[in-house]
Amino acid sequence: EDKVVQSPLSLVVHEGDTVTLNCSYEVTNFRSLLWYKQEKKAPTFLFMLTSSGIEKKSGRLSSILDKKELFSILNITATQTGDSAIYLCAVEARAYDMRFGAGTRLTVKP
Amino acid sequence: NAGVTQTPKFRILKIGQSMTLQCTQDMNHNYMYWYRQDPGMGLKLIYYSVGAGITDKGEVPNGYNVSRSTTEDFPLRLELAAPSQTSVYFCASRNDRGNEQFFGPGTRLTVL
User: Fold this and answer.
1) For chain B, what is the radius of gyration of the CA atoms?
2) Domain tally for chain A?
3) DSSP B73
4) Which CATH number belongs to the domain containing residue A101 in this structure?
5) Is some CB atom of chain B closer than 8 A to the CB atom of A43?
6) SS3 B8
7) Does A4 touch chain B (CB under 8 A)?
8) A91 contacts chain B (CB < 8 A)
9) Chain B residue with minimum CA distance to A101
10) Residue B98: pLDDT above 70?
11) Among A36, A65, A95, B55, which is disulfide-ready with A49 (CB 3.0 to 4.6 Å)?
12) For residue A41, which residues of chain B lie inside 8 Å, CB to CB?
């Protein structure tokens, strides 16, 4: 059965800290892995990863995929209170069939 | 562009009632999805569509039906509402290059 597991489930840090969020997966016919940020409402797209070992970067956020070990990490450096959200990992398990993890709830305290 | 729109925003149903959640996108995307999100959980795929006239089941399709008669619209139908269908429902669309999904604002459904 396809599954996507995120850890930790929740995390509390202070502004300026660096955090690493984890996503491991077991799926058939892996096509891509995506990271989303969900604040109060709908998820918003952060990154899409298809190739192993290539880092995607956007400002203070970066992500990398390891297809051999079947996991991805999302790093956030110099965290700000605006980074507080649920971070979701999703894997395209078969064509167009997306499987989401339960998410990591990040709280950044001033 | 309005993006992905969903109606209604909120709805309370009684057990056994039926309803249709509407989803429309104006980006000419072929791929559309319906998800449900239970409290503290990630999104679970209910149904998806790769183009007008083509739909397929996702992870949790039981109790739901969909249709895709046009590129723009992808309604989700609940025939006999049950308390287990209390959830937030998100519709999403994706472009042909498959780079990201665009989500609608969600419909919060409560079945009592």
Assistant:
1) 13
2) 1
3) B
4) 2.60.40.10
5) yes
6) coil
7) yes
8) no
9) B42
10) no
11) A65
12) 105-106
Task: Quote the CA–CA distance of B112 and B107 in Å, as a whole number.
Answer: 16
Give the residue from chain B lying closest to A92, CA to CA.
B98
Residue B77 has pLDDT above 90, yes or no: yes
Is the Cβ of B41 closer than 8 Å to some Cβ of chain A? yes
Print the domain residue range for B81.
4-111
Give contacts of A 57-86 with B, CB under 8 A: none
Q: Which amino acid is at B95?
A: N
Q: What percent of chain B has pLDDT over 70?
A: 98
Domain limits at A8?
3-109
The distance from CA A33 to its chain's CA centroid, rounded to whole angstroms, is 9
Tell me whether strands B10-13 and B107-111 are parallel, antiparallel or unpaired. parallel
- CATH of residue B78: 2.60.40.10
Place of tokens 């979701």: A88
- Report the candidate in B98, B87, B112, B109 with the shortest Cα–Cα distance to residue B33: B98
Say whether the peptide bond before residue B105 is cis (omega within 30 degrees of 0).
Answer: no
